[in-house]
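Q: Joint fold for the lines below.
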Amino acid sequence: MSVTVVGSVALDTVETPAGRNDEGLGGAATFFSLAASFYTDVHLVGVVGEDFPEQHVALLQSKNISLNGLERAPGKTFRWTGRYHDDINERDTLDTQLNVFEHFHPKLPRAACESEFLFLGNIHPALQMEVLEQANAGFVGLDTMNLWINVAGDGLKAVLKEVDALIINDSEVRLLTGERNIVVGASKVHALGPEIVVVKKGEHGCLLFQGDRLFAVPAFPLRHVVDPTGAGDTFAGGFMGSLAKQGHVDWTTLRQAVVHGSVAASFTCEAFGPDRLAAVTYADIMRRYDAFRALTQFT
Amino acid sequence: MSVTVVGSVALDTVETPAGRNDEGLGGAATFFSLAASFYTDVHLVGVVGEDFPEQHVALLQSKNISLNGLERAPGKTFRWTGRYHDDINERDTLDTQLNVFEHFHPKLPRAACESEFLFLGNIHPALQMEVLEQANAGFVGLDTMNLWINVAGDGLKAVLKEVDALIINDSEVRLLTGERNIVVGASKVHALGPEIVVVKKGEHGCLLFQGDRLFAVPAFPLRHVVDPTGAGDTFAGGFMGSLAKQGHVDWTTLRQAVVHGSVAASFTCEAFGPDRLAAVTYADIMRRYDAFRALTQFT
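A: Joint structure:
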């Protein structure tokens, strides 16, 4: 089954302890699509400006990602600039230029409407609702961020009622629910709508909640993290892509999807932008999936 | 096989978001012994003052912990006072009174010398060396802290050459090795002596390194953490006790020992001091061990 993702496509300027990358390919929908493309057909819905390099279009197309929903609008592409600390889990946003993203209203091509799996990337809840109204997906995942929780909480809660899975950071669960304890926080998210909650904890891995059931997976321990930008979006892409490939959502496919998300995210961290993720093969993915098994099994 | 532990026995005054506990039973050797006693015979070596309550002695004896090495010295018992933040992973030490611990020199009774497994709790490296010179253990584990890394680094390095396993926090690995990345840091610890490195990450679980092999386990997700004091020492007790019960150290028993340590530590967090740990049964331990399997297995 196929996956549709709606979200940002960006040019990122990033500084990390490992070096610097100027105006590299970025954006949540980019990382998501590249990760999901290992598993299934992907429809990317987003917007870029007239300055968006052809080589990036070519890269996405080379992965069989459908770009019929990638609008090219007059003006400049969304840009983000950030700097990571020596503790690479911490970063500062130095600059955000919305550019063509400011007036973006997602329009889903017919094929994108018919995807069985839909992921609403981290955009304004009102836009997420516009997408929901166009799509016919049987399974909907959602990301959000502190900004929308703070400035568009009611809109976000309306969207949450309609989605199956919320995939967010630990700090965002705390902000959304007002609850410090993540296990209790996940229960409160369930009460808002999503039956499935995935809490991402960066280098500490993630937790999966479905009702009272709980699964935990560590992040893959890397000797050298170059750039974690996009790791969370990559996780979501591996998670949704793996579910779509299996074609059904149950406790087994969900746990495996969380591992696939973690595998994909680990590759993203190993180079700037999506350089490493775009270079690996499905065989690499499965080798690291097996390494995750060795990393976590004790019987 | 039996385990000997050398370390502090204390009276702790603790304030957490869940409440307050005045002069409760505490100390690294206490938590360690209680956890290890689920698995095997334990010899506790430490010192208390004349004011140490008989009920605590009775509790430890009720768990078949040998107290022949628990010296009762003139003066007052070691006291620690701490306050946890709303983020219960953070705490401030408000007061430390070494009292009888200040002039403590561990003297191991004959039976304690003959334990096959020895754990050197977090005390001055010179004292740890004194213990090593008395003992005949085949497998030695060690804990330490930022203070000793900073003020007694050479002594610590001399001890590290003699031990099999170092069990410390992530921040301590960073301080000891000067390396931010934990995987690289663990390699550097190997080079200092210990073939086995266990890195504790609090609520994020722990990592086990033996040469190039790596195992990761999450902490057990708890809905309500009352008091994490002693969780790390409890972990070490479950880890060493489980190894001693198996009677041999290999990659399988090590991984299982890390899970047993995590199980025991999770109970400690559920009440003040060792109240919960002391109340559970071996059947409770094994039930949560099975819950860990369900929490982490995906195939």
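Q: Anything notable?
A: The interface with chain B takes residues 86-88, 180-184, 201, 204-205, 207, 214-218, 221-225, 252, 255-256, 258-259, 293, 295-299 of chain A (CB under 8 Å). Residues 251-268 of chain A form the longest helix (18 residues).
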